[in-house]
Specification:
The chain is an alpha+beta fold and 361 residues long. Helix content is 28%, strand content 17%. A hairpin with a 5-residue loop joins strand 7 (302-306) and strand 8 (312-316).
Length: 361
């Protein structure tokens, strides 16, 4: 069953009106040309045949687009999608042709009686998913794919590691251990010369007005001096814009599965898109190229990986159409450049591709 809510009847009517207006415009132009070029010259049957062929071709083209992509010009304008009621995927060309045939018959000159009958069957659907008679015949339903605004839920399985970069830079290095100076061997002092006065004691150095340097500005340690903590800290890898630590021990196994058939266990930074490419200095473990029927998937759309505390995080890479997290039937946009924790059973939509997240024992 699709995680999207069923579309309202008014939005479905507006999408239906847009599709019919487009089809009737093309049919009207074809009828006018057939009249001027054929009927007026006496070829009445040829003119009628041309008009009928154009009408059938327009409805067939709309059905093919609807069956393969789940959308039409009217549905795309109102963020609606026609999908299978049981699968949530496009219904295919055959069911789409049956569905379009019923809609075409309903729009015959019956003073709106046919269209009103289909709307009444959708409104009286006992399942609440607004399946009209044409939807039941094709096994389809119309869903609303607009993101539903919702407050983020504080659902995190394990505490996430937070790296405070400002505090890390301002922590001073530990002072070197104090060791007593080595004792010099005893020497026999020579008798003082009466003509040579003793040298004056060295003046104390003036207090320095230079500000306290942070560990990044200190010079390299000399021999015998311990290195500052900021210079010996292991490097950290970058997940997009924020810094997160890499896993250092056994972590949870997270599997991702796509509606296009790909399925694998996440073992490192993975980039997703039509032709994903890493940024300079970025070393992803896997580049996953996916098909996009309507070109709604960007070249490098998003990324995901398992971080140090064993959770799976995903992040949109500033894609054109964005990424949507679907959790328990609620849709929420992924902010570009901000990692989001994923849970077992979540769905993430990248353009027209859907990813399912599962945690393996």
């Amino acid at each position: 069953m699709t995680p999207f809510p069923a579309a309202d009847l008014d939005r479905r009517f507006y999408a239906f009106a847009v599709d019919r207006l487009l089809a009737w415009t093309v049919d009207g132009v074809a009828g006018y040309l057939a009249w001027r070029l054929l009927v007026e010259d006496g070829a009445v049957l040829a003119g009628v045949a041309v008009v009928v062929a154009v009408v059938v071709l327009v409805y067939a083209a709309l059905a093919v687009v609807l069956g393969r992509t789940g959308t039409s010009p009217g549905n795309a304008a109102l963020d609606l999608r026609v999908v299978g009621a049981a699968t949530g995927a496009p219904i295919g060309v055959g069911p789409a042709l049956r569905r379009q045939a019923v809609l075409g018959l309903a729009t015959l000159p019956t003073f709106g009686l046919g269209t009103a009958t289909l709307a009444w069957t959708a409104a009286m659907d006992p399942s609440g998913r607004r399946h009209g008679w044409h939807d039941r015949l094709a096994g389809s339903e119309v869903v609303d794919v607009r993101p539903v605004p919702a407050d983020p839920e504080p659902v995190v399985e394990a505490p996430r590691s937070v790296v405070n970069l400002t505090a890390l830079r301002l922590v001073p290095a530990p002072p070197p251990p104090s060791t007593p100076p080595p004792s010099a061997p005893p020497t026999i002092a020579a008798p003082p010369r009466p003509s040579a006065p003793p040298p004056p004691p060295p003046a104390a150095p003036p207090p320095s007005s230079e500000p306290l340097r942070t560990p990044q500005h200190r010079a390299a340690p000399g021999p015998g001096e311990p290195a500052p903590a900021a210079l010996t800290e292991p490097p950290r890898r970058q997940l997009g814009y924020p810094l997160v630590p890499e896993p250092t021990g056994p972590t949870a196994r997270w599997r991702v599965s796509f509606d296009s058939g790909e399925s694998f266990v996440v073992e490192g930074l993975t980039l997703v898109g039509r032709r994903p490419e890493p940024r300079p200095g970025e070393t992803p473990r896997q580049l996953l190229a996916l098909r996009s029927e309507d070109m709604s998937l960007s070249k490098t759309h998003a990324q995901f990986q398992v971080v140090a505390d064993g959770v799976l995080v995903a992040m949109d890479r500033g894609s054109t159409n964005g990424s949507v997290l679907l959790r328990r039937g609620v849709a929420r946009d992924l902010a570009a450049g901000r990692p989001t924790t994923l849970l077992d059973g979540d769905h993430v939509r990248f353009g027209d591709r859907m990813m399912t997240v599962s945690r393996e024992p």
